[in-house]
Amino acid sequence: MKYSQLFGKTRQSVPHDAKSKNAQLLTQAGFIEQMSAGIYYLLPLGLRVLQKVSDIIRDEMNKVDGQELLMPALQPEEVWAKTGRTRTMDDILYRTQGAGNKDFNFAPSHEEAVTPLATKFVQSYKDLPMSVYQLQTKFRDEPRAKSGLLRGREFGMKDMYSFHRDQADLDEYYERVKQAYLNVYERCGLKAYVVEASGGAFSKELSHEFSVVTPAGEDTIIVNNQTGEASNVEVAEGKIVNPADPQEDELEMKEVEIERDMSVEANAKAHNCENWRILKTVVYRVEDGFLGVVIRGDLQINEHKLERYLGKPARTASPAELEELGLVQGFISPVGQEELRFIADHSIKNVKNFVTGANKKNVDLVNVNVGRDFVIDDFTDLVLLDKNSLDGDYSIETAIEAGNIFKLGTRYSEDFDLKYTDEDGKENYVVMGCYGIGTTRLVGTVVEASHDEDGIIWPKSVAPFLVHMVTLGDDENVMAAAEKLYGELNQAGVEVLFDDRSGSAGKKLKDADLIGIPVRLVVSKRTLENDSVEWKLRTEKEAEMVALSDVTQKVQDFS
């Protein structure tokens, strides 16, 4: 491809509304163009990268016996109503009406399409296991569409669905796909962590995300630096640092009048003690009333863990609700509370002689001890982990979620009556799994993880072209030599972007760095004096001279 004929060119300025690196660099380098927030054109360079990414994904899905198909993006709302996700995913659904006022959704996911399809072809245990996948466009009314290709309203995705006779068969296949996903990221030049996470709107089970560490990420993961294992902070469990003296004696509980602010820090300062000595109580509103949650003062409550424990939504009680319960905000404690149920994080078990409120304004209790002075109905893991609270060698990293996989069980099989008959003639619900990679998101992730101050650095596996050839100057001999080399490389099957423009050397070299193709070849009057071209890898600072006669073979050896 000659750059002079390329649709989509580099630009000097960064779009004013492009906040993320992938949005800035991909737009500036001529790979994408924004149509609206979260909606992008993929220009020829961008589409070539997407096709490379898609080919890698296809190859790995085929290796785990996936069969490619293509499902409708426009789906009757009635199938979504059947699973209840018209309600649980209402915020992000794009809806429209067809002839006869029939309601349709533009699919954000395809469980509601693939499951009824499977009922037409799965009848017997002999039809299982089976796995199908597609690469297709998805639609989600994303309220935070501000991160380029990382968070779109219209985006590409590979979604695969597997069907099994039992949980054991799903578990085995799930591990195969997990490895295939790791292969995809490695082949795209990325280091991905397998992270245990929530199933969200897709499954009540824990899922696994594939996270790539980068400052642009919107997820927080905790990495065990000894084992390399990682967890999403939403569900992460770990050994919490215990700063208390286990030999400390329990002292007599006393009531103390004190003026202080409502924060843990102000409380600790007023009592001249550490934050962990404060017994913190937060009251939540749940469906069937109110619940008190107790945790050490230096720790934070992980509300995602709380909702998983409860199996229902929870929100912090308002000041008005606290007043109705007879509780004084900032001075709440479980002591003397008989009407309210309390649960607690495990961390309070290891501390004696807590300081806490007395449920009276400007009155605290000191030397408060669990079991003696108040009762907890249940203990569970409720702590939001951070590096300072963990006992061990951990790091907290910001990461991009670059894919996820779920064990769906029989959740959708039951909704659509997807059953198979076993060897004994008994009917059973099919067990399902699903596996998603955002293809356009993966393009953006590569850019976020692989760039420098000059532009993108494409791994050669997904680069739009392997070679970026640049001519310097308008000398006829230079253009003739470059045209000849361009033809030789094309004849050898090498993908070349040939910058044949008559612009300044600085502009052309700067554009080459911005676009980020792995190999840059410079043909100039100076190089031809030695029958050579200048060879430079995008990942390196220094260039070298390579004889014209050796260039094609060197490129082939590099590819």
> What overall geometry do the principal axes of the alpha carbons give?
globular
> Unreliable stretches, pLDDT < 50, 5 or more residues?
none
Please tally the β strands and state the result.
33
What is Rg?
Answer: 30 Å
The main β sheet shows up as: 5 strands, mixed, barrel
Strand order of the largest sheet: 9-10-23-11-12
Helix content: 25-40%
Number of helices: 15
Average pLDDT, rounded to a whole number, is 92
How much strand?
A: 25-35%
Oligomer class: single chain
Cα distance, first to last residue? Answer: 18 Å
Characterization of the model:
With 559 residues, this protein is of the alpha+beta class. It contains 15 helices and 33 strands. α1 (21-28) crosses α11 and α2 (44-63) crosses α11 (439-449).
Write a brief caption for the model:
The protein is α+β, with helices and mostly antiparallel strands and 559 residues long.
Features:
15 helices, 27% helix, alpha+beta, five-stranded mixed sheet, 33 strands
SSE inventory with pairings:
Layout: H1 21-28, E1 32-36, E2 39-42, H2 44-63, E3 67-68, E4 74-76, H3 77-83, H4 85-88, E5 94-97, E6 103-106, H5 111-119, E7 130-139, E8 154-164, H6 167-187, E9 192-197, E10 207-213, E11 219-224, E12 230-232, E13 254-257, H7 264-271, E14 279-286, E15 289-296, E16 300-301, H8 303-310, E17 315-316, H9 319-324, E18 341-345, E19 354-360, E20 363-368, E21 378-380, E22 383-384, E23 394-409, H10 411-415, E24 419-421, E25 427-429, E26 431-438, H11 439-449, E27 451-452, E28 455-456, E29 467-471, H12 476-491, E30 496-499, H13 505-515, E31 519-523, H14 525-528, E32 532-537, E33 544-547, H15 548-558
Parallel strand pairs: 3-7, 9-12, 15-18, 18-21, 29-30, 29-31
Antiparallel strand pairs: 1-2, 4-6, 5-6, 7-8, 8-26, 9-10, 10-23, 11-12, 11-23, 13-20, 14-15, 14-17, 16-22, 19-20, 23-26, 24-25, 27-28, 31-32, 32-33
Helix pairs in contact: 1-11, 2-6, 2-11
